[in-house]
């Protein structure tokens, strides 16, 4: 797996609180059985009008933000539906990191599992970053994942990352492979669990057979 | 042993391994799947040549993309969606996972199907690639939504890498006034604590108002608690929960009754257990609720006024209100009651169960859908639909001019062909009023089933307490 140590790029501000995953990736783009083509759906109704024409005033459509790779978002970013398509779409569009004061829980896990970096900073710093992002001459942001630091024209900050997530970014991590090293432990757990509560064993298959 | 919350007990009783200071490997008793958040997970398994660890602990339902027109045999016309359904069947067949397929008589919304057949049992951990998995807390099971990468992880290991959440308790005493339901209660709670109010927490509900709720009402409450950002919602199982499960799980009732009752006796927070945050509400203060904005916390009582953004605190709350009112085309400061609607939707995992349909039918009976309104009922499952028809509720609805449709998620997220046109205003018993959720430019007002029925027969957002029950 590729190592992600630094993310340096240009930022754009999305001043929307509680930006939900329905808006990040609308329903009509969820009909695939693979992950492809989701860049077309990203923030679709914000990027395009009802006739499908580009909305020139939307930040990501402006010429000066063409090469955006870092989004500065409002709080509770990614709330609502669990659809991981939102994360895949952001990445396919070229977004490598999001900075906001908070994220919805499922979105956070989905992002980390795909190594889309989510940086959590206090609201005052996020506001400053948004102002920096609005100025095309000053919207470069440098993120060092190993040092857990972020730098823009007017912000210099450190951010938290769980050791497990940090390792996922720096070393790549086959999460399933790692969990499978606990296979014997899981099997022993299940034996014990089902000995105490036999009605939990095979619960789905047994119910379906009965119906 | 020190005092523990119900949530901690559930996590500890499902910890197969401790990974580090923040994460455990959580054993999942039941994993539910649907056709749209699982395909890439199965693809990942094939690619890595991995199997499904415990197929019998997994179940799949075609729920989100399924059309709901009242045809006898259902055919998915959209080719991409049809492929999702056949792909799900192929994957389930390949790995030996039970499936409620497109034309299964018991097909429905996953969160309606699983509990009604006794698959959800107190003390379980239940997960699903769908955020509304919090529903199962109503039976004392820890349920929560996951993403597709995690779906793959669960398939391969029957466990999840799980960050333990914080504990919140919401105590609700008093009695819900006549004309209000669990939907009004949960909307009122979300309105008070906000769309982020429970972010990072698992919520445990308690108090006399919770004790008084039926199990189906508790499903509604726990289902929508995720709209406050919570990672789970729990209610300690009581006699009602036990009776509900026993009536639907003959294997427990006949073979394991005493052992199960014994195991479930410990499913409550201990005296003195500490919660990181506590809230208290009085159910007696709750009036019928209706949302005015584009986030479930943008809600008022039906006899209330749409807020003036200028009077809200400067910052995110005000800017969100401005943005929402622009989208919902409502006038700040005006009464919400009387707002005309063009569409009414009754259904979803929040309000698609038999008690919900009965509540709506009680208002519809003897009345007719108002001119210019299209109203539809989409039962939560085949079993709910059959039960409603046995009671004659389908006749009540169709005689009043409602469409009586086949089960599915339908217009809750409009992934199938039940999509609203631009500018259409909908009274909806669903869970999300997000921009574009029910169709680009469509405006969603969330409310309970009786309130939605009242909107259907009057053509306006209406205080259901004004309508008499006709015979």
Provide a descriptive summary of the structure in words.
- The complex is a heterodimer of chains A (211) and B (471).
- Chain A has 211 residues and is α/β, with parallel strands linked by helices.
- Helix content of chain A is 36%, strand content 16%.
- In chain A, strands 4-3-2-1-5-6-7 form a 7-stranded mixed β-sheet.
- Chain A is globular and about 65 Å long.
- The model of chain A has no long low-confidence stretch (mean pLDDT 96).
- Chain B has a 5-stranded parallel β-sheet, with helices on both faces.
- The mean pLDDT of chain B is 97.
- Chain B is an alpha/beta fold and 471 residues long.
- Chain B has 16 helices and 19 strands.
- In chain B, strand 3 (30-33), helix 2 and strand 4 form a beta-alpha-beta unit.
- Helices cover 34% and strands 17% of the residues of chain B.
- Chain B folds into 3 domains: 6-164, Aconitase, domain 3 (2-Layer Sandwich); 166-236 and 269-285, Aconitase, Domain 2; 289-466, Aconitase, domain 3 (2-Layer Sandwich).
- Classes of the chains: A alpha/beta (211), B alpha/beta (471).
- At the A-B interface, helix 4, helix 7, helix 8 and helix 9 of A face strand 2, helix 2, helix 3, strand 5 and helix 5 of B.
